[in-house]
């Protein structure tokens, strides 16, 4: 599933032109982009071209706004169709990208309700109620059509006006507000409101005064003029699941020019990074925005951090020979709801347990623990742990080294995971000649498959009696070779079982073919090495009687273990693992803090216990 | 926009198409039904001829009258069997400002095809505009409009983006499966023989074939080499057409996807099924019956394209299409009075 960015671009930014290449880079990285184009400059140009004066209204506040009468709205539509949208198409076309551009009213892609009559000051200076003002707010998005367009084009670009749900001529609408409505309706992953300044400025006259972080209700006092709508739009979008930022000047990529809007305020400072990391969507394949934010956090904390070629965040303290690797993962399974603190006790949101709680714990420990001169502490936030590619873990396995590893996976703050079962997954296909099922002694393809599965099970279990096993899928098809019945046979192999041995144990069965889909060995440590001892002492120091477990699933530990067999590895992380991947995923503040206390002590213990190993 | 109700006459209102038009216009907020013709059913009530309308508070008691009694109206809808309207045309046109014909009489321009398929129309002098609501851009001040055939229009929806964007080779095969109401009330097909059967209607030579060829040529500038075959389904309503074509060299599946998404994005009554995952996600009769919707999908594997369209032949293929055309021509909101949800199960 591609990550979806909604990017609002004002007309002055469009005119500069550099934004097209930045959006092109998002497309190149595999994102879908829904752009919303502002049209102020285009409308000015169009009115100048047709020699028409732009009517305005004076509001009670003294502000002047464009008067969108039923007649003027036709000219505004023409301005978008003749000036702004062709400019967008040309910008992307030069980059070789396909763009679909349209006013949002087209085919009711976005429709909304007209605003109430506007209170204005007439030319005679007296209050006046202006009824013929075709302006409204978005209320409905045609998701089917929009998804069809997003699936077919590199970029889809919409602009005002929107359709009127009560029919009649289209309604002009603020482009930032359209972008926010689209982000919520499409369940976008990221919303960027690109502006001409470096985000929202505390002092409009000081371009260096960017407000980096805001919560709902905080931005209005700093926003004047057009920036009011941008702040309103950003806060509207917080009801969705996108991470939201006003970015600039005229760019997406200058981190110092970002004002981020956060949906949930952390109850205490030590919960801030957890809260914010959970609020940045990072479904597998879309970890980049979270990696950038964590890298920025590290930079501000004085920690060296980089994003490696696989997309992993790699943050390091110290450069001594004794190295401890804390390896978590940034990605989550898909989700679409905003992050919320429940009574300041639990943080509800995707990834809080699996496994941003663990990763943020690692980041805090990296920041706080003193690393000896002869040692190194490294945190990796890996990509694609939740999908079978395990891209991040494979890159770590092949490009980094460590003397010991702690994997960031939840088992609870009072448990230590000593290892994981391995996964041995087979596709077994039994083929029989067609048309013999009614004959004497005929064996159907499913019957043949059942027999073959039974033989294979017996053979594997003879080598690994403790393995768990199940047929997790099956199907039958007719082909030119005959009738084929196929089953997926899954074994969970206990640590210590050699996958080569069980592979060789698979019997040759005439008429049956076997494909090995996954052969990841299990891995487990004892409790006697320095790493386990470091944790044991840390639990004791925190008055915890720990439980030690070997988990039946697989994790990045299995991937590392395929070549790092001699490196001690454990897994530790806060949170209730039964909430992984569920819609009830939440983590307790106390649980998170306990894990932080245990891990920071354990890491310090490991440095102490391994002192002199390299002397 | 109209500032008064449009008065309409439905010529041939006792047939299936006419009855369906009565059903839709009876509750259209901008229309007043002034007159319903039905020569053989003259003096009978609407409710007695169309039992499904007998409980409507206004139209159920309206009576069919001979065409000769037709008063002056804004629009006359022609719902007569093909070949009948040409005989009454001068009379109807003297009393109606506009005529929208749902039958096939004036769809074809080629004189030979016209003589072959619509011999009664060949000598008529009036020029009719062929009007597909989603594709026709001009009506002008023309008084005479002819709407597409039901299987033809479904085929046009399936093929238009492919030819408009020059994505496929000229050779295209269309098979069109239609329900029994497409044959009209006078069909000789006995229900006992139709039920439980699915059979060929015409492998070659159906009169919608030259119509599809003409429409695709007019709307896209490309001339298809069309093989058009029709089949009879055991359902009262509904048409499912499948078009098979081969991509031109160098054309990608993504370009096909783009063409369909862009072609129908602004069309309220053509819905693209853009990402079907299971069979029920593709266009199907139960998603469109009773509505004015056409569902369309396109699927590409290697260079083979399969485009599918499903419509209700009596609504999107006839009466609903006529109301949609009337709305567009008279400046009424295009969607007014037209159902967008199907009847199920």
From TrEMBL, chain A:
InterPro entries to which the protein is assigned, alphabetical: AceGlu_kinase-like_sf, ArgE/DapE_CS, Asp/Glu/Uridylate_kinase, LysK, Peptidase_M20, Peptidase_M20A
Ranges where the Aspartate/glutamate/uridylate kinase domain occurs: 5-246
Domain of life according to the entry: Bacteria
Keywords: Amino-acid biosynthesis, Cobalt, Cytoplasm, Hydrolase, Lysine biosynthesis, Metal-binding, Zinc
Keyword Zinc-finger: no
Stored Pfam families: AA_kinase, Peptidase_M20
Keyword Metal-binding: yes
Any one biological process term the GO annotation gives: lysine biosynthetic process
GO molecular function: cobalt ion binding; hydrolase activity, acting on carbon-nitrogen (but not peptide) bonds, in linear amides; zinc ion binding
Protein known as: M20/M25/M40 family metallo-hydrolase
UniProt organism field: Natronoglycomyces albus
UniProt lineage: Bacteria, Bacillati, Actinomycetota, Actinomycetes, Glycomycetales
TrEMBL record, chain B:
Semialdehyde dehydrogenase NAD-binding domain: residues covered: 7-143
Biological processes per GO annotation: L-arginine biosynthetic process
SUPFAM superfamilies listed in its UniProt record: Glyceraldehyde-3-phosphate dehydrogenase-like, C-terminal domain, NAD(P)-binding Rossmann-fold domains
Record key words, sorted: Amino-acid biosynthesis, Arginine biosynthesis, Cytoplasm, NADP, Oxidoreductase
GO molecular function: N-acetyl-gamma-glutamyl-phosphate reductase activity; NAD binding; NADP+ binding
Function: Catalyzes the NADPH-dependent reduction of N-acetyl-5-glutamyl phosphate to yield N-acetyl-L-glutamate 5-semialdehyde.
Catalyzed reactions per annotation: N-acetyl-L-glutamate 5-semialdehyde + phosphate + NADP(+) = N-acetyl-L-glutamyl 5-phosphate + NADPH + H(+)
Name of the protein described by the UniProt record: N-acetyl-gamma-glutamyl-phosphate reductase
Pfam entry (one): Semialdhyde_dh
Protein family: Belongs to the NAGSA dehydrogenase family. Type 1 subfamily.
Pathway(s) served: Amino-acid biosynthesis; L-arginine biosynthesis; N(2)-acetyl-L-ornithine from L-glutamate: step 3/4
GO cellular component: a single term: cytoplasm
Chain's gene name: argC
